[in-house]
Amino acid sequence: MKWEEETLVPTHIEVVWHRFQDRSIGTLLPHVVHSELIEGSSDTIGAKHRQTCAENGREMTYVVETTDYRDEPSRKVKQIQFESDGHFATTLRFTLIKLNENETQLIYEGEKKPVSLTGRLKLKFSAKRTRDQLVRRFVHHLRQETGA
User: Fold this and answer.
1) pLDDT, tens digit, for every residue of 87-109?
2) First to last CA, the chain
3) Fewer beta carbons within 10 Å, N or C terminal of the chain?
C-alpha cells in the first residue's frame, strides 16, 4: 500500500522543518509517547530510535531508522523506516520545498508492505478510505502545529 499527499503550508520552511526534528517527534506524531536514541546521532542518516506509540488503547514499541536526511536552505527531506508488529515494513518520506519566505510545499509519501501472511491479510482487508483519512489527519495536524 502506497500513498502520497501534497499540500501547501503557509509558513516558512524552517518552522515546518523544526517539527520533523527528532526532538519534536511527539509534537509531530502525538501517538509517539516515548522516543529514545539508541544508535548514531539525532537527525542524521543511520540514527535509530526506540519509539513507543499508543494506538487503539495499546502500546507498541518499534525501532525507527532514519534512512535519508537532507537539510538544505530550500529543500529538506527526512525518510524513516520501521517494522511494526512483525507484520509490516513501513517507509515514510517527508519532503519540504521552500516556495517563498512564507510558503512551503509538503510532500508526504509512505509505503506499508506486508512481511508476513497475517500482514498480507490485514492489508487486504484494510480500507483505503481509512488510510486516506489518516494521511489527511496528519497533514491537518502539521498545518495546525505550524500555525497555518
Assistant:
1) 889 999 999 999 999 999 999 99
2) 29
3) N
- Residue 2 pLDDT > 90: no
DSSP annotation of 17 reads: H
CA distance 61 to 6: 29
Domains belonging to the chain, first-starting first, are 2-145 (3.30.530.20)
Is there a contact between 52 and 61 (Cβ–Cβ < 8 Å)?
A: yes
Give the global pTM: 0.83
Q: DSSP string of 67-116? A: EEEEE-SSEEEEEEEEEETTTEEEEEEEEEEEEETTEEEEEEEEEEEE-S
* Core vs surface per residue 63-100: b (16+ CB within 10 A) or e: ebbbeebeeeeeebbbbbbbbbeebbebbbbbbbebee
Is the model more confident about 92 or about 85? 92
Helix (H) or strand (E) holding 4: strand 2-9
